[in-house]
Design a protein that fits this description.
Keywords: Membrane, Transmembrane, Transmembrane helix. With 142 residues, the chain is mainly alpha-helical. Helices cover 74% and strands 0% of the residues. The N and C termini lie close together (7 Å).
């Protein structure tokens, strides 16, 4: 599963600022020009502070989203490792079960009980196959 990171802090500001190619975008790129800010300040006292506060809050929100995305990716990697370990353990246990059935069936055959050996081996292999097929239907490949 491939995921993409959220927008980098200040990326939303980069869309609105009309920056020239090659310019570095900052969280403050979305701020109005000084002359425009002066006009707004005269019309609505405190407008400059409010605009600045909104830009800073947006930057902090984007930074928190990015930090949480990084934490989620690290958690997904740990879960993938646990999944791999559990699948490997299941393969080892399943192989051991088949080897055990074969060993017990050989013991029966060596002691002249071929019919019980065939029933035990057939039933055991059928049970393991059912368990394998049932788990593969429950756990689709990711």
């Amino acid at each position: 599963m491939t995921t993409t990171p959220p927008e980098e802090p200040g990326a939303a500001a980069a869309i609105d600022d009309g920056a020239q190619p090659g310019q570095v975008s900052t969280p403050y790129s979305a701020l109005p020009a000084a002359s425009q800010a002066e006009v707004w300040e005269r019309v609505v006292p405190g407008a400059g502070e409010r605009i600045l506060r909104l830009v800073e809050q947006d930057f902090e929100r984007q930074a928190e989203k990015h930090r949480q995305w990084c934490l989620d990716r690290a958690h997904e990697r740990r879960l993938d490792l646990v999944n791999l370990a559990l699948r490997a353990t299941g393969m080892i246990v399943g192989s051991g079960g088949v080897a055990g059935y074969l060993w017990v069936a050989k013991y029966f055959v060596d002691h002249g009980a071929a019919a019980p050996a065939a029933g035990m081996l057939g039933g055991g292999v059928a049970a393991l196959a059912a368990a394998f097929l049932g788990s593969s239907k429950r756990n689709p490949p990711s």
